[in-house]
Amino acid sequence: MSTTLTKPSRPTEPASPGSRPTRAKSSSWFTAQHKLAPYVFVSPFVIMFSIFGIYPIIKSIMLAFYATNGPKSQVYVGFSNFNFMFHHHDFQIAVRNTIIYTLCSVFLQLPCALGLAILLNQKWLKGHSFLRLAFYSPNLMGTVYVGILFQQLFSIHYGLVNRVLASIIPGFSTDFKWLGDPANVMPALVLTSLWLYVGYNMVYFLAGLQAVDKELYEAAEVDGANPWQRFWAVTAPSIKPIATFVLVTSTIGSFQFFDLPYIMLGNGGGPNNAGLTIVMYLYQQGFITGDLGYASAVGWTLAIGVLAISLLQMKLTGSMKGND
Amino acid sequence: MNLFPYGKAALSMFGLAVLSAGWISLHPAPQKKATLTYWTFSKDHYDAYQKLIPDFEAQHPGVHVDLEIVNNNALAARLQAAFLSDLDVPDMTELEIGTAGTMFRGPVKDIGFIDLKPRLEQSGLYDRYVQSRFSPYTSRGGIYGLPQDVHPVQLVYNKEIFAKYGIDPDKIQTWDDFIAAGKKVTIPGKQYMIELSDSTTGSGGLETIMLQRGGSYFDPAGKCIIDSDVMVKSMEFYVPLVAGPNKIGGTTGDFYGATWSKSVEDGYVASMICPDWRTLFVQRGPTKMAGKMGIMPLPAAVPGGIRTSTWGGTMLGITKRCKDPDIAWQFAQFLYTDKARLAKNFQQTNILPPLKEAWSNPAFSAPNPYYGGAPLGAIYAKYAPSVPAQYTAPTIDTAKAKLGEALIDCVKYYNDSGDKGFDDFVRAKLKEKADDVRAFQARNPY
Question: Which entry of A204, A300, B214, B433 is 20 to 30 Å from B181 by CA?
Answer without folding.
Answer: B214
